[in-house]
Design goal:
Length: 348
């Protein structure tokens, strides 16, 4: 029996879409000048899934995310020994594939100007965030192969600009409609392999249904590459007060992973006053009884509702608390009564 080429095996594993959800990732919005240090702390506490975005002049700093990841994983080449099992050269102890490193980012609406620009932006983000993972090499003395390492999810951050979201939305260039932009996203995954999965964020239920209908009709008639493809992931605001029931129902129906952001009530807190989620007597009571933080209670509620979550903190103690949720036996600990009480917070 001929021996399988390990280069082909590794390449296939990097680009194969698996059904493993994000589960518990780490968000990187609004970390400011602390982004590099916070991502490093999160890595040290065991996080391997990170969420960021391309608008580096406002809420995010993807350059610092990529630099923190590279500095954590890489050491100087002269300290490394070639490892036949991992095909790693220049990487000691940690490799991106072995650590299940999964990085997601988003293209902002003002960059949805052409298919070329969307695909170019995805490749640039891949290089910035996980390009260092291409230190996984094959070198048999005759040839040397660099295997590109893909992003986990590449999202459309929002299909359109809206006033007040970002300074660049005040006077955006002419933009593609969502359906046209989605054709480029399909190429990002199937042709360019810049990302394993593609997703959408900040859409209404009607916008999501319209996109799904567009894709389903093409699946019946269109052949070729890239093939028509439903979103693999939807990212949206959801918390116990506003749990995004309709969006989550659509995602369940079409096997789309739902990733919740601002799960801990920060959207409400930005509107002024206290945080009605973390300051809720219901949440505090459950936290005191179970001797867990209020954040852990809310995130466990979301996980038990089959949402993935991407919380963040800039304090090591809180990051360590969040990291407990990475362990399955520590992430889903609420009983039916706890879940019902938290569900009762829903704004009707």
């Amino acid at each position: 029996m001929p021996r399988l080429d390990p280069r082909a095996t590794m390449a296939a594993s990097l680009f194969t879409v698996n059904n493993t959800s994000i589960g518990v990732g780490f968000g990187t919005a609004a970390l400011g000048n602390h982004c590099y240090n916070v991502v490093t702390m999160a890595l040290q506490e065991g996080f391997s899934k990170f969420d960021t975005a391309e608008e580096n002049d406002h809420w995010y700093d993807s350059a610092s995310v990529g630099q923190a990841l590279a500095d954590y994983f890489l050491v100087p080449n002269d300290e490394c020994v070639y490892n036949e099992d991992t095909m790693a050269e220049g990487v000691c102890g940690r490799t991106c594939s072995r650590a299940d490193l999964r990085i997601s980012t988003k293209i902002p609406p003002w960059k949805l100007t052409s298919e070329e620009n969307i695909r170019k932006s995805a490749e640039e983000s891949r290089n910035e965030l996980v390009g260092f993972c291409e230190e996984i090499l094959w070198d048999d003395g005759n040839d040397k192969l660099m295997i590109p390492f893909p992003l986990d999810v590449y999202y459309i951050h929002a299909p359109t600009c809206w006033k007040g979201w970002h300074p660049r939305c005040e006077n955006p260039p002419p933009l593609m409609d969502l359906q046209s932009a989605w054709l480029a996203m399909e190429a990002v995954a199937a042709i360019d392999h810049s990302a394993k999965r593609i997703g959408i964020s900040n859409v209404s239920p009607n916008e999501l249904l319209s996109l799904i209908d567009f894709i389903r009709k093409r699946q019946e008639t269109v052949q070729g590459n890239p093939p028509p493809r439903l979103p693999d992931v939807l990212q949206a605001f959801a918390d116990p007060i506003e749990p995004a029931d309709e969006l989550r129902r659509i995602c369940r129906q079409h096997n789309i992973e739902f990733v919740s952001y601002s799960t801990l009530g920060t959207q409400h807190a930005r509107r002024g006053g206290k945080n009605p989620v973390l300051d809720s007597p219901i949440i505090r009571n459950i936290a005191e009884r179970l001797k867990r933080s209020t954040a852990e209670i809310v995130l466990s509620w979301a996980l038990q509702k089959n949402m993935s979550v991407i919380p963040r903190s800039s304090e090591r103690e809180h990051i360590a608390q969040l990291a407990r949720l990475l362990r399955k036996d520590e992430s889903t600990f609420l009983n039916e009564d706890d879940m019902s009480r938290i569900d009762s917070m829903r704004r009707i």
